[in-house]
């Protein structure tokens, strides 16, 4: 078992209101950073998630990279009483938060390369954002950690798109699925996780969010044109968390992606751009940065090696 890692202390998290009004996003800067960084990495989390993996920032600091994370609107530290957790009716909402974080990184470290590191749903958002900003204002490279590129054999059991779209227009907040997450519960057993921000009981899937997710995934399926190097990382295998043959407990929770289908990630990754590189992590879990010691070290090493190629 890896050692537990503390979540970043409160003073390092800074809430930023968009235009001085709700919703807010939170920028998190871990305390340790290199004196003369080679560049800066901006991190975006996934669904039912927030930034707490300070060891990721430490590994990048050791490699000479500064680090900035964003808890996007209605997620993690940015969630406010009365808001629907993690809801977005259009993925451009969270993409806007990522863009603000990248702008903050460029202001804090002017002239340095900026790399976006994004996980799961955040990986889908980051890919679409990088495509939209391929001409100007984007990142210098993108790292996608198990990006949520398709609902095929994933934790989401979707409605047919033809039925989902009118439901989303009529009742965007309608709950279409809600189940506990054994994966999130397992991470809470192994890491210091605030379970009010990453909830083992899961976060309800609502029609408007699922429709927005599917629209983004269908755009990826048609092909993107991200104009910077992209590293797509995934586990070597998947295991099912829900349904027939589900993993209730056991080794798969510690050595496989129990959230997404890795074969689908592999199939769709080449459609992201013209310079897509892949890394497969044997024994990795869905968030590769939260895997057991060996797979986690392999993933962090691959990320650092990719960053090295950018600045050499």
Automatic annotation (TrEMBL):
It comes from the Bacteria. Pfam families: Hydrolase_4. GO terms for molecular function: hydrolase activity. The keyword Membrane does not apply. The keyword Nucleotidyltransferase does not apply. SUPFAM superfamilies: alpha/beta-Hydrolases. Keywords: Hydrolase. Residues 36-234 form the Serine aminopeptidase S33 domain. This is Alpha/beta hydrolase.
């Amino acid at each position: 078992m890896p050692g537990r890692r503390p979540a970043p202390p409160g003073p390092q998290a800074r809430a930023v209101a968009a235009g001085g009004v709700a919703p807010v996003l939170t920028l998190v800067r871990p305390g340790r950073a290199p004196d003369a960084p080679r560049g800066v990495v901006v991190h975006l989390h996934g669904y039912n998630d927030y930034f707490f993996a300070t060891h990721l920032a430490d590994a990048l600091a050791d490699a000479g990279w500064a680090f900035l994370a964003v808890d996007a609107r209605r997620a993690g530290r940015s969630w406010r009483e009365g808001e629907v957790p993690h809801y977005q009716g259009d993925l451009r909402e969270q993409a806007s938060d990522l863009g603000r974080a990248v702008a903050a990184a460029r202001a804090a470290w002017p002239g340095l390369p900026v790399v976006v590191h994004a996980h799961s749903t955040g990986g889908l958002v980051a890919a679409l954002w990088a495509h939209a900003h391929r001409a100007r204002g984007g990142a210098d490279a993108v790292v996608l950690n198990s990006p949520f590129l398709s609902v095929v054999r994933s934790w989401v059991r979707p409605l047919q798109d033809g039925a989902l779209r009118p439901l989303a227009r009529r009742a965007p907040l309608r709950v279409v699925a809600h189940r506990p997450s054994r994966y999130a519960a397992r991470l809470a057993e192994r890491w210091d996780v605030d379970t009010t921000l990453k909830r083992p009981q899961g976060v309800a899937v609502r029609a408007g969010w699922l429709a927005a997710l599917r629209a983004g995934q269908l755009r990826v399926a048609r092909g993107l044109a991200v104009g910077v190097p992209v590293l797509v990382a995934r586990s070597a295998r998947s295991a099912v968390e829900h349904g027939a043959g589900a993993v209730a407990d056991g080794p798969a929770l510690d050595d496989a992606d129990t959230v997404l289908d890795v074969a689908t990630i592999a199939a769709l990754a080449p459609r992201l751009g013209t310079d897509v590189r892949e890394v497969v992590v044997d024994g990795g879990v869905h968030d590769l940065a939260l895997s057991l010691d060996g797979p986690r070290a392999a993933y962090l090493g691959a990320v650092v090696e990719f960053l090295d190629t950018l600045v050499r």
